[in-house]
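Objective 1b. Sequence-to-structure analysis of non-specific serine/threonine protein kinase.
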Amino acid sequence: MTTAPVDPMIGRLIDGRYQVRSRIARGGMATVYLATDLRLERRVAIKIMHGHLADDNTFKTRFVQEARSAARLAHPNVVNVFDQGQDADMAYLVMEYLPGITLRDLLKDYKKLTPEQTVDIMDAVLAGLAAAHKAGIVHRDLKPENVLLADDGRIKLGDFGLARAASANTATGQALLGTIAYLSPELVTRGVADARSDIYAVGIMMYEMLTGEQPYVGEAPMAIAYQHANDQVPTPSSKNPGVPVELDELVLWATARDPEERPNDAREMLERLREVEPSIRSSQQPAVTQATMVLTNAASTDAATAETRVLGAGALPPAVASTATLESSEGEGTAALSKSADRRKRRGYWIIALVLLLTGLAAGTGWYFGAGPGALAQIPETATLAPEPATLVLEEAGFAVELGERNDPVVPAGQVSGTDPEAGEQARRGSTVTLFVSKGPSILAVPEVRGSPSAEARAALKDFTVVEPDVLQFSNDVAADLVIDVLDADGNSVGSEYAELGKLTLVVSAGPVPDVVGMAGADAEAALANAKLEFAYLEPVFDNSGEIADGHVFAAEPTTEVVRPGDTINLTLSKGQDLVAVPNVVGKTMAEAIALLEAAGLKASYELPDLFLPIATVKSQDPAGDSQAVRDSTVRLVGSLTL
């Protein structure tokens, strides 16, 4: 035989003041306990943030925000907040303790409510909400789970954990908050909320109370959200013909898709509800005593602050509403009166037994669906955690865990990539949640895009992350804007396979390096700068070919093997031709002439055999003596022998 584990919080003394007695309920962000305030000797409800959320500043901020939002409100229909603090690593919130059930529990027990019961409960809800709107607070999470029906008849609005100040449209700045079934169209489409968004949620709640079901259902949350954004909520009487037209109109007014067509705030809707309340009550059959009634303090003249009282769930069955009547007439004897008294006593016993039975059933049902195994809980976020801590987080939230694997292009292998159902969705406590551990990204084939235009290459590589901007590279062989190469994350040419969503870089041709040889120096500089290339000058040289004029680029050489924008091109300017003076060697011997020409930097050509050079005489030369010639050029000599 196994026993349930003992909650370590039971019996703990928090902040030296609050003695924890028992657990009341557990939610996605915190657990609520019944505790005793030892200082004031009263029972309180203490809400303690889950340990795994203590280091998350977002959750801490939201937790403190709930305390501040609710503490600003002092109204009979709003749960009072007494205290908020931190004990070691544990954030807590102290509220008044209200033994009873929620409106959700009531709807689970009775499916739908009568128009009078709906009016009574909505009167209290709107009164509390009107106080919040007057204080500039938008609740943003109105739903039957947050409407508390106390055993003493009070109705209170609680859980301001998502509340925000309403001074201007309030954007969520993150994924949509609140329960999807009650989200207004503007929250779904634009992520902004104001007081009219709360009114929309009130209208959905009224529809559910009158018909026993929500107006929109679907297998996935996005399907429900789509209906909120695109469809008009139907009238409750289309599902329940017994709904009076006044309540139909109220629901349609509150759930208009355009916020401008709804009541501006809860006060405006509350006033309209109270205007039509007499006609609603008069249109109903008076033979059955209503299960829910509103009692107001007779001394109070302000209807908005009147104390609202509702009979508990056990008072709702028709058997309780039946009243015993004593059928007697004048002249009845003592025996008849005695029998009548006995009948009344026996009937009273049966009614008491029935009330106790139904109260027990309601309490048991409320516990099962509110805090027991049948309660809904939010799937916590576990992505990027290691499997062990993620499993603990899910188990602490009340779920069984089954491990699975799947590829994920973002989450590294070995870390949690998500769950099924997904984080943020609602599921039954005790149900199984599949925890997916990432196997890393899938390995995909890489399409061949070399030689393709860059835009086409990007489209072909859609399964990968193509880094921007492209790397430009000058090429004499590949036309501009065509892909030269595809590089992986390490800067190497990518192979035939690569990881899904892995980073790739396109090397795209910028066309050939500008040809600046023969250009004047200034023109060459402008051409290179226009191509986003740098330049540097080397020592100028003579161009004895005569092709490159003085001051023009004789040579342009890159300083890198691969030329890309920003690289440097070395420029060599021409100094023109290197000219020297041609000596006059006519009359000299061939040997003397050759020596003189070589000394001047010239070469000699002749037709005589070398044997005759010392004795042959130069008769003519070309070019002529005392002229100029290009260094290393040849002077033609004509000689003869003198005998």
